[in-house]
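Q: My collaborator sent me two sequences in one message, no labels, and asked for predicted structures for both. Can we handle them in order? The first one she listed is below.
A: Yes, handling them in the order given. First sequence, followed by its structure tokens:
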Amino acid sequence: TDTDGLRVLLIRQGTDLGRVSDDLTGAVPGGNFPVDSGLAKRDAEELKAQIETSALCEPFKSRLVAAAVELVTADTALVDSQGSAGAADLLATSQQKYQAINDLINNPPSA
């Protein structure tokens, strides 16, 4: 189903955000914030594109698109921070947006 493919993209997004967290905390020596945050943004954009072209029913599809736009916006702000002092707060926002879309995909509203 269309949501199965979206779940795969969500796994990638979650992994990307985990790497960004590791970069910010220094958990992984030699972490690369610009690369990892860029991957998160790229994968959020891909998720949004997949939702937009999916055959999901309305209004579920529109809700997912709106959630994906919020995720892309959050990940874009994270990339733009370049790992500055506010990056941890921006990461928390990205993680919240990721969780929101993840919850929506895994627990779709009943018709």
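Q: And the one she listed second?
A: Here it is, processed independently of the first:
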Amino acid sequence: LELALNGQISDDFDYEDFQMGGAVAYTKVKPHAKNARIGNSIFENSFEHPFVNRGSVFQCTFFPVGYTLRSGHVGYIIVSGDTAEEVRTRIVQEEKRFLKNVFD
């Protein structure tokens, strides 16, 4: 703020200067049935991975193997890609894969 007030920072910037040039989507995953028992735990990549490596995914379960989830969310997924359409399609696929891996 001090630099801006002293005229040392230009306010000549464009909205495009702040775009990442890709798309990111995230979702909390909820099982289809109540009282679902977690069969597998998932922790794939780091939380930052999709932001640093476009086209990648981060996913994790919140609870350990054997836990019975009475209600709520079981995990989290973040997907990145080049376009919003690509990311929308991919997150749906990843959610299906996540649920199959955790509960089957």
